[in-house]
Amino acid sequence: MKKILLLLLLITISTLCHAKDPCTNKTFVENYQFNINTQPYKFTSYLCEDKNKDEDEDDDVFLTPGILEIHGKNFNKTFKNVIGMAGYRSSMFTQWNDKHKPVFYYAISSSEYDTEGYMPIIIKDNNVMVNCIYMNKSFKNSMKFNYSYCGNLQIVEDGFGEVGIGFDKLIRDFYLELIYYFSNFTENKESLQYKKFDVFIGKIDGISFYRRYSSIKDYELNKYTIVIVNKEKEYRFKPEDEVYQRIVDRSGSQAFIGLDIVDSKGNIKFYNKEALSALLNKSTIKRNITSYIQYDEKTKLYNKPSNRSATDMYLVQHDSVTILDEILNKSNGYVDWYKISYNSEKHGKIIKWIEGDSFFPMSEISSD
User: Fold this and answer.
1) Distance separating alpha carbons of residues 338 and 358, to the nearest angstrom
2) Rounded distance, CA 72 to CA 116, Å?
3) Beta strands per DSSP E along 183-238
4) Antiparallel, parallel or unpaired: β 310-315 and 197-204
5) Rounded to 10 degrees, what is the CA torsion of 298, 304, 306, 310?
6) For residues 177 and 205, what is the distance between their CA atoms, to the nearest angstrom?
7) Residue 54: per-residue pLDDT
8) How far is 7 from 15, CA to CA, in rounded Å?
């Protein structure tokens, strides 16, 4: 009996001695502790810079692979090929800015824009899961925009970071990109430096969405307030809140369904069309959406949203207008027409229509 016990002890010691550490050369080691569903979990992430790897080990997912360890009560998991760095793309574990919320951070860079995505981590049924992504995207011309998407719960497993396998299934194209690209207020004159203006960013039925900038400097710093409006009223979200335009897997204008509001503590609240309408119904602030023309040639005025209704009147670059309504292209979400009010020295207050590219410099269009 003693010989058997001794043999078992030797086998156990041998197994422990030969157990392979997932990484021997750890860099960029990060340690966090978060409470999820009132339970504490310790997260440790690091990049693995081991030079000598087994030839049969699949580390092709990342040029520099990483390891994520999660430990809690009756919960111990180690993930490979979920985080790491691979040239133009990377996925890491971190906390969401200063919100103390555990997320997978996904970044990808292309010749046109840079994209960052935050995927809050869910622990349920002894599994690590994700189902939503919050995207920050910026064109190379520095214009930035935010949007979000939520799908089915996905269980995070080894290899989740591979292209087209895990995180990529949550990434969606944002059909409203053209709206942001064709709104450029970098062309201005000194008298407009500190003038408030609004930039259209989307519409759901009778509710329109704008970014409000208090000055050109705030525009350049990407500092704004999200304003929603109907025909009569407007409602302003807090400037410190992060606002994401929620999209779903639908075509055209039906893809935009509401807003995700992320406060400074990482709490996320989704507002659909009904919830947004309720905010507007309670608001006591009258609609006051204003902007100024950026098109550097004459902007024709139309009696109706039709090219056949042109008048002999026009606006010029930097003229200030009040925006009363918008008509979107159903296929791409771009604005075809704006209904505007303008105070003319000759004609007094006039209400007409202008084409959707009136807030984008002609020189920028030509350079493309």
Assistant:
1) 9
2) 29
3) 197-204, 207-213, 225-229, 233-236
4) unpaired
5) -40
6) 19
7) 52
8) 12
Task: Specify the pLDDT at position 225.
Answer: 95
Instruction: Tell me how far CA of residue 299 lies from CA of 103, 306, 312, 355, 362, in angstroms.
Output: 47, 14, 11, 8, 11
**What is the phi/psi pair of residue 252, to 5°?**
55, -145
- For each successive 10 residues of the chain (368 residues), what is the average pLDDT? 44 42 84 94 92 53 92 95 90 89 92 89 95 90 86 93 86 83 71 85 94 89 94 94 93 87 90 98 97 88 96 92 92 87 91 91 50
Report CA 67 to chain centroid distance, whole Å. Answer: 26
Q: How far is CA 43 from the centre of its chain?
A: 25
Q: Please list the residues that pair with 314 across neighbouring strands.
A: 300
Cβ 302 vs Cβ 353: under 8 Å: yes
According to the model, what pLDDT value does residue 362 have? 61
Torsion over CA: 276, 278, 282, 286 (sign): positive
- In the block, tokens 């793309």 appear at 89
Per the CB < 8 A criterion, the answer to whether 244 and 259 are in contact is yes
Query: What pLDDT is stored for residue 282 in this prediction?
Result: 97
Structure tokens at 152: 């089915």
Those residues with Cβ within 8 angstroms of residue 289's Cβ, 6 or more apart along the chain or in another chain: 198, 208, 210, 227, 229, 234, 322, 323, 324
Which pLDDT score is estimated for 22?
Answer: 65
Structure confidence at residue 168 (pLDDT): 86
Q: From edge to edge, which strands make up the β-sheet containing 225-229?
A: 197-204, 207-213, 225-229, 233-236, 285-286
Token pair 């180690």: residue: 78
Asked whether 336 and 357 are in contact (CB, 8 A), the reply is: no
DSSP string, 275-314: HHHHHHHH--EEP--EEE---SS-EEEESSSSGGGEEEEE
Q: Count how many residues are written for the chain.
A: 368
Position 13 scores a pLDDT of 40
